[in-house]
Design brief:
The chain is mainly alpha-helical and about 575 residues long. It is built from 27 helices and six strands.
Length: about 575
């Protein structure tokens, strides 16, 4: 039965004073009570309730008719205050509504045992006198005490209708009671209940009832709930409550992370709170799901049930679970988030998302090269160069190598070398990427300068001294350490050139001599010879800049032919 039809019947029920009994029956958690309260409050706001008083009574733990009578009496409120919880003032008005109410209020305090006695026994008999022309909602029938029989309850409801001119709505679960009680319900319901509505809303109707706000999180949960065909409003409400906490915790993170949190939370909550529905994957299965089973790589290992669950998950676009999702799962189990561990995992995932987005941004720059035959070399170079520098923190060594190779092919060697320098200077906080020995991408990096610079950075990962500091140290002492040799041998000719050309002062000659000294050693190592050879090449480059510099480098034994 559609929500619209249920609403129409409830409105008709509330709109007359005619005594009658209405039953609303549906599965556990579909929102029968929630919907009744919503439609009741809507009717109150629109002035469509005929009777003047209303009471809600849950039978949870109720063991007798006397308990129920008093419970109804305690809960009576004026229909104009529907939506306000009963309190001491509404209770006082209920007593005053009795014909002898005011006299009772004066009389009760004078009883000798008033201060020590429970006055409920006195009120039990008086309470029933006040139950005239009231709308009474009786809920949680399946949770009543064992001593309170269903036939007694239905007999009392019949009496309220026939003798007290009340309108009663009974909220029933579709699940049967125990055998004897269920049989009595079947026998007496036909005699007592005038109208019985089957409350079986669609997932779309459930989300419309449960979710009224229009913020991002609520709208996403509404869509996810529809996709999962969630018909349990209690589950949707639990998800909404957790999403309110998530919204404030994750507001600084990328939209993709928040989307994943809500997407995973809706699924995990459904699986955790599911009530015997085999079509919904087991909660533990979700928490331990792997790529191989889900993608069918080990299809023979999956049971028929698991294959059905995998299909369910694929339709929901859920392919694996990560550490961030597991933090969401803990919150579903406990009812709250461990903020420290949640945000720790959120930071990791957020960095990955940013990296993925940056890689995509860099890929878009490459499209100017791949996706056209236009004569746009300058545009390609500028686009790749700028995008590379913008996204350097998230570009892999493989992409560095590819970009450098393209630049060298296009005779943009200077820009290629600058990109290598820029990459290394901005990725020093992640030294592991410079270790090519055990790297999975080592075989894909073939630019000699990248290999040389990476090896240098890897060797020097434990020594934070700059090349200038090392050369200054060599000039000031007789001797050197292996770290000194590793740092200087990893420098390029251009590195030495930039170091020498940027220095001014008496120490310059000492620095040049310190770097050239290895050429005088008979048993110099390969690395030591590299230092002197690169120093000589750098000095030749300097000497060729001008006749004056040619004369300057001559004192170090560097002869520039034709420029002296």
């Amino acid at each position: 039965m559609s929500i619209k039809l249920v609403r129409n019947q409830i409105n008709k029920f509330l709109g007359t004073e005619t005594p009658e009994v209405l039953a609303v029956r549906g599965e556990w958690g579909v929102g029968k009570t929630f919907t009744w309260n919503k439609f009741l409050e809507d009717a109150k706001n629109e002035g469509r309730i005929a009777l003047k008083r209303y009471a809600y009574a849950s039978l949870f733990g109720c063991n007798s008719l006397d308990n129920l009578k008093l419970k109804i009496f305690e809960q009576v409120i004026d229909t104009s205050t529907i939506g306000v919880k009963p309190n001491i003032e509404t209770f006082r008005k209920s007593i005053e509504s009795l014909t002898v109410g005011r006299n009772i209020l004066k009389f009760i305090p004078s009883l000798p045992s008033f201060k020590n006695a429970n006055i409920s026994l006195l009120l039990d008999s008086l309470a029933f006198l006040s139950l005239n022309k009231i709308i009474i909602c009786i809920d949680d029938v399946e949770r009543k005490g064992d001593n309170f029989k269903i036939r007694d309850l239905l007999g009392f409801i019949s009496l309220l209708k026939e003798q007290k001119d009340c309108k009663i709505i009974i909220i029933l679960n579709s699940e049967p009671l125990n055998n004897s009680e269920d049989n009595d319900l079947k026998v007496y319901r036909e005699k007592v209940i005038d109208i019985e509505l089957l409350f079986d809303p669609t997932p779309e109707e459930c989300t419309e009832i449960a979710i009224s706000s229009v913020n991002y999180c609520s709208l996403q949960i509404k869509e996810f709930s529809k996709k999962l065909e969630i018909k349990n409003i209690r589950i949707i409400k639990k998800i909404l409550r957790l999403s309110d906490q998530l919204e404030s915790l994750l507001k600084k993170y990328e939209p993709e992370l928040i989307y994943q949190a809500l997407h995973s939370m809706t699924l995990l909550a459904l699986c955790y709170f599911k009530q015997g529905n085999d079509k919904i994957p087991d909660y533990d299965y979700i928490k331990n799901i792997g790529y191989k089973i889900l993608y069918g790589l080990n299809a023979k290992e999956a049971t028929i049930q698991e294959k059905e669950w995998n299909s369910f998950l694929r339709k929901y676009s859920f392919y694996h679970i990560d550490e961030f999702d597991l933090e969401i799962a803990k919150a579903i189990e406990n009812g709250f988030f461990n903020e420290v561990s949640l945000l720790a995992e959120a930071d990791k995932l957020n960095a990955k998302i940013i990296a993925d987005k940056s890689e995509n941004s860099f890929s878009e720059a490459w499209e100017k090269y791949h996706n056209t035959f236009a004569n746009n070399q300058e545009e390609v170079v500028i686009s790749l160069y700028d995008s590379f520098k913008k996204n350097v923190q998230y570009i892999s060594p493989i992409n560095l190598n590819g970009t450098v190779k393209l630049f060298r092919y296009l005779s943009e060697n200077e820009k290629a070398d600058k990109l290598i320098d820029f990459y290394i200077n901005n990725r020093k906080n992640n030294k592991v990427i410079f270790d090519l020995k055990d790297s999975p991408f080592a075989n894909h990096i073939d630019d000699p300068k990248i290999i040389e610079r990476f090896n240098c950075e890897n060797k020097c990962s434990g020594d934070d001294r700059s090349p200038e500091e090392v050369i200054s140290s060599l000039a000031a002492k007789n001797g050197w350490s292996q770290n000194d040799i590793e740092i200087l041998s990893a420098l390029t000719v251009d590195d030495f050139y930039q170091i020498f050309i940027s220095q001014n002062g008496k120490h310059l000659s000492l620095w040049v001599d310190a770097c050239l000294q290895f050429a005088q050693i008979n048993n110099a190592s390969v690395e030591e010879k590299m230092i002197s050879n690169k120093t000589i090449e750098a000095l030749v480059k300097i000497g060729k800049q001008s006749s004056l510099n040619a004369r300057r480098v001559a004192k170090f034994g560097i002869i520039i032919e034709g420029d002296i």
